[in-house]
Every structure is written in C-alpha cells, then in structure tokens.
Write a structure and sequence with these properties.
Blueprint lengths: L1 E5 L4 H12 L3 E6 L18 E5 L5 H8 L4 E4 L15 H20 L3 E7 L10 E2 L11 H20 L2 E7 L1 E3 L7 H11 L3 E4 L6 E2 L1 E3 H14 L4 E6 L5 E2 H11 L6 E4 L14 E2 L2 H6 L7 H14 L6
Parallel strand pairs: 1-2, 1-4, 2-3, 4-5, 5-7, 6-15, 7-12, 8-11, 9-14
Antiparallel strand pairs: 10-13
This protein binds nicotinamide-adenine-dinucleotide (NAD).
Nicotinamide-adenine-dinucleotide (NAD) binds next to helix 1, helix 3, strand 5 and strand 8.
Length: 316
C-alpha cells in the first residue's frame, strides 16, 4: 500500500510511520516541521520505500503535486496546542479546517479517495458525566482546536457524500509516550527540572481524563482502518480507565526520584479556557471490532514518563 502521511514527523505521526514501514508499506511523509522533528524519522531516510517532503499543507499546489499516486492518506498534521486558540483565533481555522480542505481537494483532483483522520474527543465539548459514545450529540466543542477538528470531520464527510470518498475518523483520548514534545507530562518534567521543590499545576488537579499510550493509538488506528469498511467509519480511540492530573504529577515526581515537592495549583476546575476537565470515551465500537488497548490509563502515563525521562527526544 502507498501511504501519504501528513504530520508524519510529529509525535504520533512518526510512530505511525514506523509501524507502516514495518508492515512493508511505501510511505511518503509530508510535514512542515513546525512541531515535528526530522530526527524522529532518521531511521527511514535511506529506505527506498520512504520519502520525506518538507512542505506546508497551506500550500495547496505543493500538496496536489505530491499526493498523486497514493492509495490512502493518513491526515495527522494539525496545530497540536489546544491552548493557543485563546491567543490566536485563526490558527485552528487554518491548521485544522483549511489544511484539511487542502488535503481533501488535492486528493479529489488526483483520484485518491481514502482518508484516515486523527480527530479528538474535544469535538464532544463539555458533556454530562457519561461514557461518551460516537453517536453523542450535539457536538459542541468549547475550544478553537475542537472547532477545527469538527470542521475537519465535516469536510471529510462532505467529500465522502459528494465524491464517493471513504473515511476512517478516530476521536483520540489524550495520547502519551516517547517522542512526546508537548502535553502535561512534558510540562511537569520541564518545570521540575527547572525547580525540583515546587510544581505548578494548572487548575485544581482534579481534571480526570483517559490517557492512551502512543503505541496503542497507532495500533488502534491501523486496526480500525483494516477491519471496517463503511463509507464513513467513526471511532472513539480511548481506554476505559482514566487518570487525574494530580496523580500524573505524583507519578512524575516519583519517577524523577524527587521528594517533598510542593504542588501549587493555579485553581479553577479547568487547566485553561477551553479545557474539558473530565471526560470518558465509550470504546464499545472498537471492542466490537475486536480491538482494545494494551495499557490502562495509569500504565500508559507511567510508561510515557519513563520513556520521556530516559530520552527527552527519543527515537524509541
Ligand atoms: P505533533 O505536533 O507532534 O504532530 C503534528 C505534526 O504536523 C508535526 O510534525 C507538524 O510539524 C506537522 N504540521 C503541523 N502543521 C502543518 C502544516 N500546515 N503543514 C504540514 N505539516 C504540519 O502533534 P501530535 O500530538 O503527534 O498530534 C498528531 C495529531 O493527533 C494531530 O492532528 C492532533 O490534533 C491529534 N491528536 C493528538 C492528541 C494528543 O494527545 N497528542 C489527542 C487528540 C488528537
């Protein structure tokens, strides 16, 4: 299979590329390196089955030229920083909605009709305290990042309905693991390296979310892609357990071998405006397909902390 991976130099994208290459697929990565790193793909640079293109998804001519002759597109690129929307209100419109449109339109003009999309649980917005199934609605995101993801899903569905595309949309829980360059674990480790006596925790620390290890996300995405065949295949990709932010802080402190660290909470129930403080994804659909994650939420967090501490910019 010839696979085009947008955002393939990023945290999740580079793990996906490792897995696709190990399966024998031919892979093209298209990435502008805004938050991704070429080092994450170093191991493939001499492989004849691998091509790296440094390009921006907002440059539609460049996308059109390079997307030709692929069987499927894994569209993973996006602005990964949920908090930025508060300061830059156009960012997710461009990096979420318009970038996704450019990918879809380039696919249409070149006869590529299969797309796999990394969406997010944030499309659900703030929900009642239930395990959220894919059928939950209305989907009313409370962040610009979430709005960008929902717009991306809408455009994908429109290209399916209008031009006969086929899509696999995965709404991810929080993802952690080696090569992680952002998120709560990286933030805590950085802060504790600077000041091992005190840790600032955004919100009240009671935010409770499911965390999935990056190996499970990649595995789940490929499994879902290979085992479902509707026109639009929509899946939550999460686990049935969850972890509080305070517990993540405790695990980071423990793994760094620190003692008597004072936790300083900034207060309020959410980490930042637009943060969904609690959610749980219903994973029945993936289970019915025959897939479940290897790690619980706590196990995934613990494993990710060790991986990131062992090698801050790892290739593992
Ligand atoms: P990441 O920043 O490591 O990866 C994003 C990649 O996209 C980077 O390599 C970046 O350079 C590239 N990119 C961004 N804008 C681009 C553009 N305009 N043109 C070309 N390349 C561009 O982030 P990640 O955590 O690996 O996230 C990957 C995907 O998964 C994103 O779509 C993100 O929204 C989604 N997601 C991530 C999480 C998580 O917890 N990490 C949760 C839910 C969804």
């Amino acid at each position: 299979m010839k696979v085009f991976v947008t955002g393939g130099a990023g945290f999740i994208g580079s793990h996906l590329v490792d897995k696709l290459i190990s399966q024998g697929d031919i892979v093209t990565v298209y990435d502008n390196l805004s938050s991704g790193r070429k080092e994450f793909l170093e191991q493939h640079m001499r492989n004849k089955k691998f091509t790296f293109i440094e390009g921006d998804l907002l440059d539609i001519e460049c996308v059109k030229k390079n997307i030709k002759n692929h069987d499927v597109v894994f569209h993973i690129a996006a602005n990964p920083f949920v908090r930025l929307g508060e300061k830059q209100t156009r960012l997710d419109l461009e990096q979420g909605a318009i970038a996704t449109y450019n990918v879809l339109e380039s696919m249409r003009l070149n006869g590529v009709k299969k797309i796999v999309f990394s969406s997010s649980s944030v499309v659900y917005g703030e929900t009642p305290p239930i395990s959220i199934p894919e059928t939950y609605g209305p989907t009313l995101p409370i962040s610009f990042y979430g709005a960008g993801k929902l717009a991306g899903e809408g455009l994908i569905s429109a290209f399916c309905g209008t031009f006969g595309f086929q899509a696999w949309v995965f709404r991810f829980a929080n993802v952690v693991g080696s090569r992680g360059t952002h998120g709560v674990i990286v933030d805590f480790i950085d802060k504790l390296k600077r000041n091992p006596r005190e840790l600032e925790i955004l919100g009240d620390g009671k935010q409770r979310k499911p965390y999935l290890h990056v190996s499970d996300i990649v595995d789940g995405m490929i499994y879902g892609f290979e085992h479902s065949n509707e026109q639009v295949n929509l899946f939550n990709l999460g686990c049935d357990s969850n972890t509080t932010v305070t517990h993540i802080a405790e695990m980071v402190v423990e793994e760094m071998g620190l003692k008597d660290v004072k936790f300083k909470y900034t207060g309020g129930k959410r980490g930042w405006p637009g943060d969904v403080p609690r959610f749980q994804l219903d994973t029945t659909r993936m289970k019915k397909l025959g897939w479940k994650p290897r790690y619980t939420s706590d196990e995934a967090v613990r494993k990710a902390i060790r991986e990131i501490l062992d090698n801050p910019i790892t290739k593992n």
